[in-house]
Amino acid sequence: MIKALLARLKEGCRTGAFPPAAPSLPPEFRGRPVIDADTTEEDVRKMKAVCPVEHALAFSNGIASIDMGRCIFCGRCAEASPKIRFTKEYRLGVFRREDLIVKAGEKDYTPPRQTDREARALKGSLHLREVSAGGCAACELDANVLGTPAWDMARFGIRFAASPRHADAIYLTGPVSANMQTALDKTYAAMPEPKFLIAAGACAISGGLYTQGNLPAEPALFIPGCPPHPATTLEALLRFTS
Ligand code: SF4
Ligand code: SF4
């Protein structure tokens, strides 16, 4: 017993300092992209030629853009053209689908603030029902680590709930395959009001590399990535209720 206690004391606190400290991101991390203002249609054509996702890149009215809701952050476009770069900006969660579109020439970025009073009322007590609707499991695994001692999202009152009847929001991952459509719809229907849908990852937001099924409601929070980094997810969830 003494040995076990001493070993536990020696372990110390394993929970990271983020937040409020900045997250420790791997060198390979790709965050919010920036596109040069003078990016041409030909530049976008070159990038599109290597992009595995349909409609992630666009050129419209003389302006290049990237849709973070479709992008899987593979970095191929940045290898094909110096006109696009991926920054270390990890605060990618937004409350409106259109805010996932990054246009050429945009430089300054401030993450949007929550204005929904019902979402803000969940600060300190946000219960999520995970629905894995045909994803590859990476989104689910990176959400799972938020419950480990390393991230410990429960210290902010954020927890995964065992039943939709105890949940404030669905944490949706995956493109909503045909076999998961009914389960998703029933889960959403079983939740008490007010209820929210959170779309985590390119698959849940847009289908990503796949064809998307039907979402039971407009998501109240979009967390882009493939998968979203745990720091991106935790920051987004905290801002969702702040
Ligand atoms: S990083 Fe995104 S936009 Fe660029 S090639 Fe990959 S999926 Fe396409
Ligand atoms: S968004 Fe990417 S990581 Fe998440 S389920 Fe889809 S393919 Fe997997």
Number of strands: 10
Bound small molecules, deduplicated: iron/sulfur cluster
- Per CATH, which architecture of the largest domain? 3-Layer(aba) Sandwich
Form type: globular
- Class of the largest domain, according to the CATH hierarchy? Alpha Beta
Give the SSE map:
Layout: H1 2-11, E1 33-35, H2 41-50, E2 57-60, E3 63-67, H3 76-80, E4 84-86, E5 101-103, H4 117-120, E6 126-132, H5 138-144, E7 158-160, E8 169-173, H6 178-190, E9 196-200, H7 202-206, E10 221-223, H8 230-240
Parallel strand pairs: 6-7, 6-8, 8-9, 9-10
Antiparallel strand pairs: 1-4, 2-3, 3-5
Kindly summarize this structure in a few lines.
Helices cover about 25% and strands about 15% of the residues. It is α/β, with parallel strands linked by helices.
What do these coordinates show?
This protein is an alpha/beta fold and 242 residues long. It has two domains: 33-103, Alpha-Beta Plaits; 117-240, Rossmann fold. Helices cover 27% and strands 17% of the residues. The chain has eight helices and ten strands. The chain has helices spanning 2-11, 41-50, 76-80, 117-120, 138-144, 178-190, 202-206, 230-240, and strands at 33-35, 57-60, 63-67, 84-86, 101-103, 126-132, 158-160, 169-173, 196-200, 221-223. Strands 7-6-8-9-10 form a five-stranded parallel sheet, sandwiched between helices. Strand 2 and strand 3 form a beta hairpin. The longest helix has 13 residues, at 178-190. The radius of gyration is 19 Å and the shape is globular. The N and C termini lie far apart (42 Å). The mean pLDDT is 96. The structure holds iron/sulfur cluster (2 copies). One iron/sulfur cluster (SF4) binds next to helix 5 and helix 7.
